[in-house]
Amino acid sequence: MAEPETRKIIHVDMDAFYASVEQRDDPTLRGRPVAVGYAAARGVVAAASYEARAHGVKSALPSVTALRRCPELALVPPRFDVYKSVSRQIHAIFAEYTDLIQPLSLDEAYLDVTENRRGLPTAWITAKEIRARILEVTGLTASAGISYNKFLAKLASDQRKPNGQFAVTPDMGAAWVETLPVSRFHGVGPVTAAKMLRLGIKTGADLRAKSIEFLQANFGSSAEWYYCIARGVDERPVNPNRERKSSGSETTFDQDLLADADIEAGVLCQADDVWGWCERAGEFGRTVTVKVKYGDFQNITRSRSQASAVDTQQALRDASLALIRSVLPTEKGIRLVGVTVSNFDRSMRPEPRNLPLFGEPEQATPAAPSPTPLHSA
């Protein structure tokens, strides 16, 4: 029996996408620290340029905090219609090379180029050409990770950011994973990384040294996923047509929050992130859930369902605020908040021809190698 062909997977990730679009369109912003967001009392940063990140400004940070950290910060209101238009251009470029495109958001996607339309001999050359085409068409830079599976390709795309690419070949995959901190692994969030650290697991090598029985005892249904990725194994296909049951976004704060206004600002940021996906995908749900994780790692959720779908951004914001206010004020700090929309009303879905353009983001925490994982790079 013939050996199965090694897959060629590219993960393309735009560099500081929203902020880079603003710097492209306004020459006075180039080379300056820029954040996309609102300066209102409850405004939050949606994206930050690399110049702003050098000052500690990042997405989900309250705008007032961002301006304190970087007084010279240019705070620009978001232009989502423009970002969507640019995303269409980028996805059209992807389609010049392959049909197997799995978007994760407006600014990143997996591509399976095992067989590419241009007949290019290697995935490295293909990624380089795609990045050049994106720069030519949009004036923006992208980074890429190239490997034989999705897990490694996504890890690799961070390796040469911004405006670079990195390849993880089959003969180096497992050994390369062993050198990395587990906090970088897709599917290992801050809480899980902290738990792994308490168990003496700091790197991929530490994770690989643990038996499947140990992982099952400590991580339950996620054990098989962790066991596989520690060995550079990920059999998930690039799937452009995966049906989705929910859309969620969450963020972990730099410090545990106690102030109602700061907590609400964080929730609103996640609601806006979720709404962006709902609007792009044409999926609108009847159920809104807010997740809270306290500083002592206690998790709680609050949900509300209604007869009709949440079909406006303001309605999602209002529902999310009502849910978070049901647990406020709080006497113990909150380290994480999240918002999820589910129970989709399929009758509100747009025509199928629009779906492949944007696809769906992956879930934040895959439970096993076959399922799958969220913010702007």
Automatic annotation (TrEMBL):
Q: Where is this region: Disordered?
A: 350-377
**Primary localization class, coarse:** cytoplasm
The compartments listed are: Cytoplasm
Domain UmuC: from-to ranges:
9-189
Residues annotated as binding Mg(2+): D13, D107
Q: Residues at site: Substrate discrimination?
A: Y18
Query: What do we know about how this protein assembles, alone or with others?
Result: Monomer.
Write out the similarity annotation: Belongs to the DNA polymerase type-Y family.
One GO MF term attached to the UniProt entry = DNA-directed DNA polymerase activity
Gene symbol of the encoding locus: dinB
Enzyme Commission number: 2.7.7.7
Is the DNA repair keyword given for this protein?
Answer: yes
UniProt KW keywords: Cytoplasm, DNA damage, DNA repair, DNA replication, DNA-binding, DNA-directed DNA polymerase, Magnesium, Metal-binding, Mutator protein, Nucleotidyltransferase, Transferase
Enzyme category, top tier? transferase
Q: Which residues cross the membrane?
A: none
Query: Record keywords: Transport included?
Result: no
Q: Where is the active site?
A: E108
**Where are the compositionally biased (Pro residues) regions?**
368-377
Mind telling me which NCBIfam families this protein's record contains? Answer: PRK02406.1 (NF002677)
What InterPro entries does its record include?
A: DNA/RNA_pol_sf (IPR043502), DNA_pol_Y-fam_lit_finger_sf (IPR036775), DNA_pol_Y-fam_little_finger (IPR017961), DNA_polymerase-Y (IPR050116), DNApol_IV (IPR022880), Rev_trsase/Diguanyl_cyclase (IPR043128), UmuC (IPR001126)
Q: Can you tell me which residues the record assigns to a coiled coil?
A: none
Q: What does this protein do?
A: Poorly processive, error-prone DNA polymerase involved in untargeted mutagenesis. Copies undamaged DNA at stalled replication forks, which arise in vivo from mismatched or misaligned primer ends. These misaligned primers can be extended by PolIV. Exhibits no 3'-5' exonuclease (proofreading) activity. May be involved in translesional synthesis, in conjunction with the beta clamp from PolIII.
Natural source organism: Sphingomonas naphthae
HAMAP family listed in its UniProt record: DNApol_IV
Q: Explain how, and how many, cofactor molecules are bound.
A: Binds 2 magnesium ions per subunit.
Q: What protein is this chain from?
A: DNA polymerase IV
Catalytic activity as recorded in UniProt: DNA(n) + a 2'-deoxyribonucleoside 5'-triphosphate = DNA(n+1) + diphosphate
